[in-house]
Amino acid sequence: YVPISAWLTSRVPSKRLYLFAMAVFLIGTILCYTAPTFQVLLAGRLIQALGVGVTM
């Protein structure tokens, strides 16, 4: 996701991109916290990884 985030940084202001990535991470965290099954937990972890990948 680092090459994608470099491309996004040239298109979107860095602050807005960072806030969006943190919001995605937060959504993934909430999904993990409320996960009733293991599959939902894995989906939450995937969403968290997408958010963190953009911030790197």
TrEMBL record:
Highest taxon, organism lineage: Bacteria
Gene Ontology CC annotation, any one: plasma membrane
GO molecular function ontology, one term from the record: transmembrane transporter activity
Transmembrane spans: 17-36
Keyword Membrane: yes
Transmembrane helix as UniProt keyword: yes
Domain Major facilitator superfamily (MFS) profile: residue ranges: 1-56
UniProt entry keywords in alphabetical sequence: Cell membrane, Membrane, Transmembrane, Transmembrane helix, Transport
InterPro entries attached to this UniProt entry: MFS_dom, MFS_Efflux_Transporters, MFS_sugar_transport-like, MFS_trans_sf
Membrane topology designation: Multi-pass membrane protein
Coiled coil: none
Subcellular location: Cell membrane
Main localization of the protein described in the UniProt heading: membrane
Cross-referenced PANTHER family: PURINE EFFLUX PUMP PBUE (PTHR43124:SF10)
Name assigned to this protein: Multidrug resistance protein
Gene source species: Pediococcus pentosaceus
Lineage: Bacteria, Bacillati, Bacillota, Bacilli, Lactobacillales
Protein's gene: lmr
